[in-house]
Amino acid sequence: MVFLCGPALAWSTQQNARAPAIIRGLLASTLFAIGLSWYIYRFGVQHVRWLDGLPFELSDVSLWLTVIALLALEQVCFELAYYWGLSGASMAMLTPNLTKPIASFPSVVFLAGHGLLVVSILYLLSSHQARPRRNAWLTAFYLLNAYAVFVGIFDYLAGTNYMYLRHKPANVSMLDFFGSWPWYVIGGDVAALCIIFVMGLPFRKGEEES
Fold this sequence. Notes:
By secondary structure, the chain is mostly helical.
């Protein structure tokens, strides 16, 4: 149902010239509030170690990239949000790593943040306000690996587990299909390449025909 909200929003407001800017602002503001409230909760209520609460998870990065894409229609931010955020948030919603009851604040923020991220990206795409370039899929994959190297080094030095590069999540996830460390990291990277490649196919075909 979440995946239909973005296209439906774009279709329902296509006759209103002022709607795109208003909707982008509302989506960006809501995403910003969700992201900020999560950090306040983590540090103020859960009292997590600051090294464990940094916005280094791919979902965190994707959320802020989406906020920038909504406010400024920045091309690279949208492309990374599309390839990283849409794929990651979709997978997270299909296999959510929830450690609290569904009605708790962390679970609500998790589902609302990932769901609204999907809605925002699909809205920009369906309303033709943003579109990935032909070879953006390759750039997104290269940058994903470069970012993973940075995060992996940070994980090693700080004893953290951002992007699950040191061990898999406790809940069931796609990484379970790829075995133990480091094979699940390699398998996850290959899976990411396949997903990003498929996500880019419609846009490469469209540019070749035009």
